[in-house]
Design a protein that fits this description.
- This is Molybdopterin-dependent oxidoreductase.
- It holds the Pfam family Oxidored_molyb.
- The relative contact order is 0.14.
- Helices cover 21% and strands 23% of the residues.
- The N and C termini lie far apart (89 Å).
- It has four helices and ten strands, in the order H-E-E-H-E-E-H-E-E-H-E-E-E-E.
- The strands form two sheets. The chain has a five-stranded mixed β-sheet with strand order 2-1-10-5-6. Strands 3, 4, 7, 8 and 9 form a five-stranded antiparallel β-sheet that branches.
- The longest helix is centred in the N-terminal third of the chain and has 34 residues.
- It has two domains: 49 residues; 139 residues, Oxidoreductase, molybdopterin-binding domain (Sulfite Oxidase, Chain A, domain 2).
């Protein structure tokens, strides 16, 4: 008897009849398991990617790494080389200048103060935008009131511990309810690559006004142009006159 060279394949228990192309149960379950593993690993992979991009941006003299997207659509920028890390033991925020009471705040001191949470769109002057971003921290006005601003004061100058970046606001701008000394972003402690442990957050202005790695707040008699203002950027960097005025901050 001649054997059929192409015998019918035995039926696949997970398919219909072994001759068609339906995906078997085992294959389907395997695909679902692989997808679930990918979803579970995604946050870890994103954090690793963000850390790599952030570290590269700090050591990139060309600034080209700032063109790469990071977590949530942010870009990482630094105007210097490597920026030191500061934390619970060595971070201090100084408030001085035209004040009656010079102050030096630790992270624990700042956390103990009333906290305000804002949710706004972050807008960079270079064009990228991150909608509905939460920042939380102490209103700058609270720190100024505690220090006792002198009558001749007109502006506030900000210094950063990267050793180069600086910014300024008028005193009126600094006292707005939507200008924070931020400790948290997106409901997490502010990471180093995003300017942590403490940064300025001027919600109604382009993001270059929100100085990263904040170390000193100096009350002055006039506005001193910041790092980017000296390079042609606007001193008053409003995104829109209504931005930051329509929503009430929560405390």
């Amino acid at each position: 008897m001649t054997q059929d060279p192409n015998p019918a394949r035995p039926a696949d228990r997970d398919g219909e009849d072994g001759r068609g192309t339906p995906v078997g149960r085992r294959v389907l379950l395997g695909m679902l398991a692989a997808g679930a593993a990918g979803v579970a690993a995604a946050p870890l992979l994103q954090r690793a990617y963000d850390s790599t991009i952030g570290a590269a941006a700090q050591k990139d003299p060309t600034g080209l790494s700032g063109l790469l997207p990071a977590g949530g659509g942010f870009r990482y920028y630094s105007v210097t080389g490597s920026v030191p890390h500061k934390g619970e033991r060595d971070y201090r925020l100084t408030v001085d200048g035209l004040v009656r009471h010079r102050a030096s705040h630790r992270l624990a001191d700042l956390r103990a103060m009333p906290q305000t949470r804002l949710v706004r769109d972050v807008q960079c002057v270079t064009g990228w935008r991150v909608p509905h971003t939460a920042f939380e921290g102490v209103r700058l006005a609270t720190l100024l009131d505690a220090a006792g601003v002198r009558p001749e004061a007109e502006a506030v100058h900000f210094t950063c511990f990267d050793g180069a970046y600086r910014e300024s606001l008028t005193l009126e701008q600094a006292r707005r309810d939507d200008v924070l000394v931020a400790l948290r972003m997106q409901d997490r402690p502010l990471g180093h690559d995003h300017g942590g442990p403490v940064r300025l957050y001027a919600a109604p202005m382009y993001f270059y006004k929100s100085a990263k790695w904040l170390s000193r707040i100096t009350v002055t008699d006039r506005v001193r142009p910041g790092y980017w203002e000296e390079r042609g950027y606007d001193v008053d960097a409003w995104v829109g006159r209504s931005n930051g005025r329509d929503d009430v901050p929560t405390t």
